[in-house]
Design goal:
5-stranded parallel β-sheet; alpha/beta; 364 residues; single chain
């Protein structure tokens, strides 16, 4: 009673609502920017069983917004690290860490142990996957997304009459066409706002109280203080989901990747040692280049149009960024729009080079 006294004082929750929270079972997909506030507030609220799915490890750049973690967690699995910190926050609840990537092969089994799913991921294949899993398993699906200074929250599949993610986005965008947070940045506070909103929706669903964002999308602009709400109407897409599919193929990522030449840091190191003629292009931003670089020519992705004439068409060209995502997008654009066929994406980017080839280079 002492721990949850402020909930017990709310007539909308009270002892009966807190009991429902204690019996609640919530699966959180992704322990990143959105997942951290979701996990913290659900654990603090006393949700009885929380599942955490994430196969990634903590990096120093995560700490700008992923506030569950500490500097000592760098290099640790996010799901396990989050579980450890949340246990210190509330030892009375059950926390389950899944140190694996959620896929069409394991999603239904994982989801079966929970009452609702909160999607805190940052990629379209996983969003479509979790939407379809929730449709097949008849679980509410709480969606969240962030970009620069803007965020979105919606609740799908609350009832069989509710809209789902496919009603909002019937088809995925072209692979590589939507910039990631790594490419364009994100205000560190923003995922705290959006993740907290996702946690609130979960508590409303669990306690069966309040106005849930059922079939509605809230769009928040943090930098200009704007807020919009859009109703999403069901379009019959639910009936079309009868099984799980290959979501990377559905989102065009497989074709996108199969048509791209790649080079490992070990192969690039061999090229350098053997005097192979090639051009090295760095598509990160200037401040990243100043922090650490491999000596490549700086051609920031955000200003690529200005550098087209400097890209060599007569030699092999290796394009790199921090981890390989931005450089892959740049190559896809150069190939599809300008016909370049001599481009290689450096797998793992400069981070892999520092980790595996030149440990004297700083990482960030």
């Amino acid at each position: 009673m002492s721990r949850y006294a402020r909930h017990l004082s709310l007539k909308e929750i009270g002892p009966a609502g807190q009991q429902k929270i204690a019996e609640g079972r919530v699966l959180v997909i992704g322990a990143g920017g959105l997942g951290c506030p979701v996990l913290q507030y659900l654990a603090a609220a006393g949700v009885g069983r929380i599942g955490i799915v994430d196969n990634d490890v903590v990096s120093i750049s995560n700490l700008q917004r992923q506030v569950v973690f500490r500097e000592s967690d760098v290099g640790k699995n996010k799901a396990e690290a989050a579980k450890s910190h949340l246990m210190a926050l509330n030892s009375t609840i059950e926390l389950v860490a899944y140190q694996e990537k959620i896929t069409a092969a394991n999603a239904l089994d994982i989801v079966s142990g929970f009452d609702l799913v909160i999607d805190c991921t940052d990629n379209f294949p996983t969003r479509y996957l979790m939407n379809d899993v929730c449709l097949l398993a008849d679980k509410p699906y709480i969606y969240g997304a962030i970009h620069r200074f803007e965020g979105q929250v919606a609740v799908f599949n609350l009832t069989k009459e509710s809209a789902n993610y496919r009603d909002l986005y019937p088809t995925p965008p072209a692979a590589g066409s939507v910039p990631t947070c790594e490419q364009e940045g994100v205000l560190g506070v923003l995922p705290g706002l959006i993740g907290t909103m996702q946690a609130i929706e979960a508590l409303k669903i669990i306690t069966q109280s309040g106005e849930v964002l059922d079939s509605a999308l809230v769009m928040l602009g943090a930098w200009d203080n704007t807020r919009q709400r859009m109703v999403i109407k069901p379009k019959g897409t639910r009936a079309k989901v009868s099984k799980l599919i290959d979501y990377e193929a559905f989102c065009g990522i497989k074709n996108y990747q199969e048509n791209m030449k790649e080079i490992t840091v070990q192969e690039l190191d061999s090229w350098k040692k053997n005097g192979v003629s090639f051009q090295l292009i760095d598509v990160r931003e200037a401040h990243e280049y100043e922090t650490v670089n491999m000596g490549g020519e700086l051609m920031p992705m955000s200003q690529l149009q200005e550098y087209l004439d400097l890209i060599d068409k007569d030699r092999q060209v290796v394009v790199h960024c921090h981890h390989g995502g931005r450089s892959a997008s740049v190559i896809q654009a150069l190939q599809s729009r300008y016909g370049f066929d001599n481009l290689y994406n450096l797998i793992g980017g400069i981070h892999a080079w520092a980790e595996e080839i030149d440990p004297n280079l700083p990482t960030y």
